[in-house]
Specification:
Family: Belongs to the HMG-CoA lyase family.
Largest sheet: 9 strands, parallel
Protein name: hydroxymethylglutaryl-CoA lyase
Helix content: 40-55%
EC number: 4.1.3.4
Structural class: alpha/beta
Keywords: Lyase, Metal-binding
Shape: globular
Number of helices: 12
Order of helices and strands: EHHEEHEHEHHEHEHEHEHHH
Strand content: 5-15%
Strand order of the largest sheet: 2-1-9-8-7-6-5-4-3
Bound molecules: 3-hydroxy-3-methylglutaryl-coenzyme A
Organism: Sphaerotilus sulfidivorans
Length: 317
């Protein structure tokens, strides 16, 4: 391709981010990988993500190693995180399904945790072996202990746009759980399209309904890209006023309890979209794309980011 016909460079991101990106690659992106990934590789991924400018990097999950073996090295990951001197202002949240997980996370130095519920009873049983109401009750002592310890708690809701076991999910059910999580003390609720089945019309209905009970400023969008709607769904949620999005470098991932679900929307694709919308993310897209290429080579899997592949092709031309 000649220089003159090259596409425009990605718009640069000014210093102060206007949209917050929560990079979930080291957790959501890796939890479903069949091959055991070395802790050193996970830590190298986290370091590269921080170097690319990401400020919220979900590092691991304090879940049962019998349920998700890939996250069994959670304490080792926490022990090897970069220092605040190396990457100032970077936050490394972790998943905690119950008090046991929270206590282990706290002992390992976590300063932010996430509890995870579902808007579908069937998914709740498969994922955390309890009903939705039981899961909320399990979170109560986590929220209380976190408050005492000065730890922030994020809430996730899975299957907000459909369930792999149950099918349709009513936006009203999502709204009720979102309100409950915030009332319990979660600072934010991330709405998970776990199987990536939603479309922008569904996102519009969802945010409209949830927004009647919860301000958009307290919501995050967590879209998987299984059906190729990830970027479109982020754009719609953004249009509805959501300014926090979860994503995974190179589109890594999938959920162990949602067969066939692919990774999250790729962080590179989101950064390209958001910069194009005039938002700033604080992320260096080229460094991020290089990180995506590197982790895909490490894992021996294709790069799921369209923007990442486009940047690579441009650099190679
Ligand atoms: C919740 C449990 C633990 C219940 O699992 P359970 O088997 O019902 O737990 P239990 O309380 O009966 O305990 C059974 C054993 O697990 C141990 N145990 C109990 N708790 C823990 C813990 N925290 N850490 C380590 N070990 C633990 C406990 O000590 C005991 O050990 P044993 O006596 O048999 O040796 C289990 O179902 C679990 O770990 N589930 C996690 C599933 C998971 O990680 N899913 C993926 C993350 S969610 C997701 O990806 C969706 C999201 C967030 O990205 C948003 C979206 O896209 O939708």
């Amino acid at each position: 391709m000649s220089m003159s016909s090259r596409p425009p460079a990605p718009p640069a991101s000014p210093a102060a981010p206007t949209v917050r990106l929560v990079e979930v690659g080291p957790r959501d992106g890796l939890q479903n990988e069949r091959q055991a990934i070395a802790t050193a590789t996970k830590l190298a991924l986290i370091r590269r993500l921080a170097a690319a400018g990401l400020k919220d990097i979900e590092a691991t999950a304090f879940v049962s190693p019998k349920w998700v073996p890939q996250m069994a090295d959670h304490a080792e990951v926490m022990a090897g995180l970069p220092s605040a001197a190396e990457f100032p202002g970077v936050n490394y949240p972790v998943l905690t399904p119950n008090l046991k997980g929270f206590e282990a996370a706290l002992a390992a130095g976590a300063r932010e945790v996430a509890v995870f519920a579902a808007a579908s009873e069937a998914f709740s049983q498969k994922n955390i072996n309890c009903t939705v109401a039981e899961s909320i009750a399990r979170f109560e002592p986590i929220l209380a202990a976190a408050q005492t310890a000065g730890v922030r708690v994020r809430g996730y809701i899975s299957c907000v746009l459909g369930c792999p076991y149950q099918g349709e999910v009513a936006p009203e059910a999502v709204a009720t759980i979102a309100r409950e999580l915030l009332q319990m003390g979660c600072f934010e609720v991330s709405l998970g399209d776990t199987i990536g089945i939603g479309t922008p019309a569904g996102v519009q209905r969802l945010i409209g309904t949830v927004g009647e009970q919860v301000p958009a400023a307290r919501l995050a969008g967590h879209f998987h890209d299984t059906w190729g709607m990830g970027v479109a769904n982020v754009a719609e949620a953004w249009r509805q006023g959501v300014r926090v999005f979860d994503s995974s470098v190179a589109g890594l991932g999938g959920c162990p309890y949602a067969k066939g679900a692919t990774g999250n929307v790729a962080t590179e694709d989101l950064v390209w979209l958001l910069h194009g919308l005039g938002e700033s993310t604080g992320v260096d897209l080229e460094a991020l794309a290089a990180c995506g290429e590197w982790i895909c080579a490490e894992l021996g899997r294709p790069n799921g980011s369209r923007a990442g592949r486009a940047l690579r092709a441009r650099c190679a031309s």
